[in-house]
Amino acid sequence: MTQTHDHATDPGESSAVSDDPQAASSAVEKWLAAFDRALRAHDEDALRELFAEDCYWRDFVAFTWNLKTLEDFDEIAAMLHAQLPTVDPHDWQLAEPASGTAENAEAWLHFMTAAGRGWAHLRLVDGRCWTLLTTLQELTGHEEKKGPRRELGVTHEITRGRKTWKESRAERDARLGFDEQPYVLIIGGGQGGIGLAARLRRLGVPTIVVEKNERAGDSWRKRYKSLHLHDPVWYDHMPYLPFPDDWPIFPSKDKMGDWLEHYVDIMELDYWAGTRCLGAQFDQGTGTWTVRVDRRGEEVILHPTQLVFALGVSGYPNIPRFEGADDFAGWQGHSSEFTGGEEDVEGRHAVVIGSNNSAHDIAAALWEKGAEVTMIQRSSTHISRSDSLRELALGALYSEEALENGVTTEKADMLFASWPYRLLPAAQIPVYEQMAERDADFYRALTDAGFELDFGEDGSGLFLKYLRRGSGYYIDVGASQLIIDGRIQLERGQVTKIVPEGVVVDGDRLVPADLLVYATGYGSMNAWLADLVSPEVADAVGKCWGYGSDTTRDPGPWEGELRNMWKPTAVPQLWIHGGNLHQSRHYSKYLALQLKARELGMDTPVYQLQESHHVR
Q: How far apart are CA 49 and CA 164, in angstroms?
């Protein structure tokens, strides 16, 4: 479709028609030459002529040593004034032929900085830059040892006492954390911590991952039995090792757990399972952290320089304090505690408080096992049918068709990131308008069943809800039909209190229950910091997630990037890593490069360190 300056397109669609690649490439090369001259000359007037009045530059580490979006030319000029002396960008060139026309072109770019090699994506509208994404991909002289740089793996000289690979690895395992301290300690060994550790190992950064569960992948294995990935397999690859091409589109939780366990072994990670972090404190004298961990009953003191919390996408389970909950006669617990295998539920009255992903999945699992299930919906929920979401929102980037069209996982990640958050709602709204039309009968049936639907406060749908608040949606894999058919009963309203025999809604409606699941979400990630470091540190870091959209659970002011994620925080040498599988894969690259640069002692001047506007 044709890209115009006034209308953003779906990030899952090509943003320019390939009408005249030669003309588009010539236009981009002309723009790059002028851009390079203006940067070298620090010529602000010349630069201003190259950018549209409405322009956006999103940078991942290459220019700002931060994750930062500049939203007009004045912001761009201020960043360049501060950063150009140390960044020294040069060698701008097309990575491949551009698409579009001479006026409206889209292009992949390579460039170099004083620190390393960059990769960029550019959109020109009427010959001027509308959006620019710049990313640092490698540090010069410290590239990953892959391809032609791979290690030999053996010394072709026969000497006495030579060590085998297995012996060398055992020695390293015994030494790191005791005789040698890790440069990076990652607290949390789910997919996020594992993927980041893999990147750091490839960069030669000594890293230990500590995980409270007994085995890698247990955070998946211990969830309810029916759980599968809600996002399609192409969206969910780990770094370096994509899933086999015969894997199902939606793998089961146990399959995912086993994959993570094998991944840890294959990637030779220093992974301490069965290890719980007891507390951490920064030592100003040594410039390192002192971290106490319990490793299967033995207390170990670690002294990493950099501390990364990789504890998922949220904090502690959020369990509302309802009057009378202590008097409830049956089983009750948060959705994170529910495995589906606790006991026989056939014929029991189960109530699920909540109406998002976990609530639907658990309600469906209980119904499958013969329970009489009621869902209590306290606020509106967005629902996307899985097939529609996959085909309309993700298909052009993450699918077999995308791969056939030359859109690799790496390109897909960059294309998604090429849309600044300010533009993303306008790019997503048409997708969900199409979805609403396509699935009109489904949505009508849900509404007739009493379900309160929404498409986000501005109609931008699921992914924006995820970025803003991390909740408020369900990807339908069958539970909605159970609600439509009345097999899962629905109550809308607020919980007034809990009584021994059930839940009272809106003051006078008793919903009988002898099993109660709180599918009520989670708190902010920095709540972990309050317990493991200190409340003062947690408040200094501030709220994690959301980007200041001034919508429900995402208060302003506008940030333009997710708060505190994958970038320097207000507490030096403390980092937050998380997100879904896609985000963990993509953004771990930039976090790993930031950590490696600091290990090397490189100058890393952070442009506009994010302020903390909201505490826990």
A: 61
The kind and range of the H/E element at 209 are: strand 207-210
Closest to 124 (Cα-Cα) out of 247, 217, 32, 248: 32
What totals of helices (H) and strands (E) does the chain contain, helices first? 18, 25
The Cα 517–Cα 496 span in angstroms is: 16
User: How far from chain centre, in Å, is Cα 85?
Assistant: 32
Helix (H) / strand (E) containing 45 = helix 44-50
Instruction: Please write the tens of the pLDDT for every residue from 455-466.
Output: 999 999 999 999
> Which residues, including other chains, have CB under 8 Å from residue 153's CB and lie 6 or more apart?
165
29-52: burial string, b at 16+ Cβ within 10 Å, e else: eebbeebbebbeeeeeeebbebbb
Per the structure block, which two tokens stand in for 178? 């005791």
In the DSSP assignment, the letter for residue 5 is S
* Strand-pair partners of 279: 292
DSSP 8-state code for residue 48: H
Cβ-contact 514, 348 below 8 angstroms: yes
Distance of CA 185 to the CA centre of its chain: 20
Of 147, 144, 138, 79, the closest CA to residue 113 belongs to: 138
**How many beta carbons lie within 10 A of that of residue 290, not counting itself?**
14
Within 10 angstroms of residue 123's Cβ, the number of other Cβ atoms is: 24
As a residue count, the chain comes to: 616
28 in Cβ contact with 98 (< 8 Å)? yes
Output the six-digit token pair for 550. Answer: 């001034």
Q: How far apart are CA 372 and CA 351, in angstroms?
A: 8
Say which DSSP state 576 is in: E
Answer left, alpha or beta for residue 21, where phi above 0 means left and psi between -120 and 50 means alpha.
alpha
Cα–Cα distance for residue pair 121/529, rounded to 1 Å: 36
CA distance 328 to 503: 9
- Cα 184 from Cα 307, distance rounded (Å): 6
SS3 assignment, position 91: strand
Measured distance CA(360)–CA(342) in Å, rounded: 18
Asked whether 188 and 573 are in contact (CB, 8 A), the reply is: no
Q: Which residues of 352-384 are buried (b: 16+ CB within 10 A; e: fewer)?
A: bbbbbbbbbbbbbbbbebebbbbbbbbeebbbb
Backbone angles phi, psi at 560, to 5 degrees: 90, -15
Say if CB 304 and CB 313 are below 8 A apart. Answer: no
The predicted-structure confidence for 493-546, as pLDDT tens digits, reads as follows 999 999 999 999 999 999 999 999 999 999 888 889 999 999 999 999 999 999
How far, in Å, are 382, 521, 545, 569 from residue 538 at the CA level?
Answer: 31, 20, 14, 11
Question: What confidence tens digit (pLDDT) does each residue in 285-309 have?
Answer: 999 999 999 999 999 999 999 999 9
Could you give the CA distance from residue 271 to residue 542 in angstroms, rounded to a whole number?
29
pTM summary value:
0.95
CA–CA dist 53, 129 (Å, integer): 9
Contact status, residue 190 vs residue 221, Cβ threshold 8 Å:
no
Is the Cβ–Cβ distance between 196 and 205 less than 8 Å? no
Q: Which residues pair with 122 in a beta bridge?
A: 107, 132
